[in-house]
Amino acid sequence: MAKPAVILVGADKGGVGKTTVSRALLDYLIAHNIPTRAFDTEFPKGTLRRFHPDITEVVDLTSTADQMKVFDSVSTASAQITVIDVRAGLLSTTLKALRDIGFLDAAKKSQLTFGVFHILGPSVASLDEIAETSGYMGELSYFLVKNFINNTTFFEWDPATYNAYFKKIKGAQEITVPKLNEMACEQVELASVPFVSFVANKGIDTQSANYSFVLRGYVRHWLGNVWAEFDRVRLNDIVGADASRKNQARQERAG
Amino acid sequence: MERRTPIFIIASPRPRVGKTLLARTLAEFLRSEDRPAAAFDCNPGEFALVDYLPGDTAVADITETKDQITLFDQFLAEDRVPKVVDVGHSLFDKFFTVIQQIGFVEEARQRGATPVVLFLADGDRRSRQGYAVLRDRFAHLPIVPVINEALPQAIRFRDDFLGTRTGGAPLTIPALSPVIKGVIERPSFSFAALAVTASDTTTEFYGWTRRVFLEYRELELRLLLAELRPALKFSA
Fold it and tell me: Which of A39, A214, B199, B231 has its CA 20 to 30 A from that of A50?
């Protein structure tokens, strides 16, 4: 059995597309048959939960009780992977709390897999966030996600400055999320279904829907590109899903 | 066996190579065969096909997503009506990028339609590049080069546009004398009416129309054969 894995998706700035990336990530993991659960920290209403209600729970990560609910159950949950969509402004705080409770040390000792998807915005403030967040990460999986879904141009970034930050962080990998057609993005929002369901023309509760073929095509193309990025950084290997599946196949053959 | 519905996409990255003439004659050929086509004029800023076939032509600008939805949903309507699409040169890249991104070719096939690109060739470098890009991007889409003999040096560039495995040999549109060209450019002129009602079959007009319609008939036979080929293989 693969080690349990926790993936935080967050940023200290709001409106950079954290939940969109979390949704694409959940779709990817589910499509690869990896048992996954998610926590939505937009307490109390939740946004991620609207798209993946079956596997998502809304929690308040600032409360100790909910921190226990999430992190104490990582090893015992039936889901191998825990994805946490961290509310704006809470990424550094959450990482600090994880360091304080010894969670990051456990990950460094390879008792579990831990990764952070740090969603970057176009402002220079995002670069300062990288410096702060990377301080917690050490050798752990750290992904810097340039999210263009909202047509972000990263105009404030000087490439030399960005590279200076980026190169300091050992093992950090860059992921690019391309722009999604605005109308397609809006329609998936209105439909309140996972991207995969939208592409398959399925509504809530998997009943047949009547989404535009053009918009479904745009979403399929975009999602394919995002998943290609996840493949490129070998996300499957990092979360140990490939090893887990190979073991399962071996056991099935032996049985 | 039900025939697949053709969606003829007439395109070139170059202006003034005969796209609208091809779209117009093809739509009229289909009408003369009692299979009236739905025509789409995608030439923002210089709509022309709609002037010749106002009753059968919808105007579309695919730069807006809303218009793309309307247009592609009409292409995919399972109404068994052939479609003729005149794509303006300025939208060449945009049109085929959208088609590729939304997986149009595969979806059309699933819905019983066969998209076919009729590519108007000319001697310009951009034309050769556009043709090569289309062949590269759409390996399974029938792409048929069309040689318009009215273009200067058509004999020279003909060899740059060899037929494709899926689309077959190039079509040829013969040149017309300038006087007759002036007549067919009148919006009220109808090739289909001429083909049916002409009393004198020896005129240049009639000969030209007959030859062009023959090219289209051969194209249709080629498409039919491509549809039947799997069944023929199986029965052999």
Answer: A214
Half-sphere exposure of A254 (CA within 13 A, CB side): 6
How many angstroms away from the CA of A218 is the closest CA of chain B? 5
Residue contact B65–A216, C-beta within 8 A: no
Closest-CA residue of chain A to B77: A213
Which of B72, B76, B103 has the CB atom closest to A220's CB atom?
Answer: B103
Q: Considering CB atoms only, which of B73, B101, B103 is closest to A212?
A: B73
The residue type of A185 is: C
Residues B34-87 pLDDT 10s = 999 999 999 887 878 988 888 889 998 898 899 999 999 999 998 999 999 999
Chain B contact present for A181, CB below 8 A = yes
Note the pLDDT of residue B155.
82
Top mean pLDDT of A115-129, A151-165, B21-35, B182-196 is at B21-35
Query: Nearest-CA residue of chain A relative to B65?
Result: A183
> Residue A206 has what pLDDT?
79
Interface A–B counts its CB contacts (< 8 A) at 37
Task: Give the pLDDT band of residue A229 (cuts 50, 70, 90).
Answer: very high
> Is the ipTM value over 0.85, yes or no?
no
Residues of A in Cβ contact (< 8 Å) with B102: 213-214, 216-218, 220-221
Mean pLDDT on A29-48: 92
Distance from CA of B96 to the nearest CA of A (A): 13
Contact A113, A3 (CB under 8 A): yes
Contact A221 B102 (CB under 8 A): yes
